[in-house]
């Protein structure tokens, strides 16, 4: 809602400048935590002195936040000459320090099964940002002042996390006395550099694409891309939060050597993730124009095709996330890392080559989709070799995916979109009921 209000209340140029500054900050913050969250969750239960372990991890994140804030300033000075973009980046970049500390507490909560606390605090954070946005209806303020107010909200959220979101495991006295030695850096970062790549590349995919758009295309394209991505991100919240939770169970089942239970649990989740992904695409595609018109106003309706194209990736992104979580839980983070790197290279090459010939947002969206599709296929090849999935099931999925994209888009472009979505809902409900009935029969047997 905050994002929608700012899009409506500021002109396209100011809004795009705000988005560019936000993109730089989010791109840097993707690396600032060094992707150590999954490693921390996996190693936390094995520690004899958990308080000391948490204190060092927390302090390490604090130092990394400060270092990468400096990187943020240098990056913006090198990339953009616009004064407003620079000032916005300096202000918003301060969030890197706050986000790193919040990141540490969020992962501690996941390790201790206290995700509900994290959820409650982040909802409050969103509500406070919404209040700032609502203030624009009463009194117009400059985009610089707006950025300063969002910084105040993030600082308040950090304080709430420190007071309420952390447990007795985070000992502030131990934190004060803990020291980060070279051996700690070597052990926590250099020895786990694969997590740095894994934890940052997924964000780098999207943030770097926005920088490419700002360099090759117009400021209006920057706004259209970011609006589409925000809607994409909202739909992705459910599988993203779920993946953080299932990682703990994947890790436990793998440590126990219970591969039958691991495969069965993964199979159940795979169906749920795919169902969510196809339902999301089926809703967004016919109603994309209506969503943009109602939420962001007529000036961004021309972003309909961008939103539809971006949601092609949504058809596979949730399961990419699930499969990556499983691969890391099986202690194959090196495989996941190299798959991430390969996918990123494919994305950047397709983007740069495509935009050289065709100056269109479609090039960026299709490049992202193709790179994630290749990522998904390579993940399945690895899981087939591990005996987690079957070749026939994977081939059937890609055949169905192709048929669904072609068939549904043709129908949605030909007939009334309300009836198209109703037809999908009926078919979707029948498939879910059939799945549940089959499962109940197997349980009864």
Task: Give a verbal description of the structure.
This protein is mostly helical. The chain folds into two domains: 1-188, no CATH class; 197-445, no CATH class. Helix content is 85%, strand content 0%. The protein has 19 helices and no strands. Helix 13 runs antiparallel to helix 14. The mean pLDDT is 83.
Oligomeric organization of the protein chains? single chain
Poorly predicted spans? none
Q: What is the alpha-carbon Rg in Å?
A: 22 Å
Task: Please indicate the count of domains.
Answer: 2
Number of strands: 0
- Helix fraction? over 70%
Q: Helix segment count?
A: 19
Biggest β-sheet description: none
Bin the strand percentage: under 5%
Q: How would you describe the shape?
A: globular
> How do the helices and strands follow one another from N- to C-terminus?
HHHHHHHHHHHHHHHHHHH
Question: Features of this protein?
Answer:
445 residues, mainly alpha, 19 helices
Helix and strand arrangement:
Blueprint: H1 2-9, H2 12-32, H3 37-43, H4 50-79, H5 83-93, H6 95-111, H7 115-138, H8 143-165, H9 172-177, H10 182-188, H11 193-216, H12 219-256, H13 259-296, H14 304-314, H15 317-329, H16 333-357, H17 361-385, H18 391-414, H19 417-444
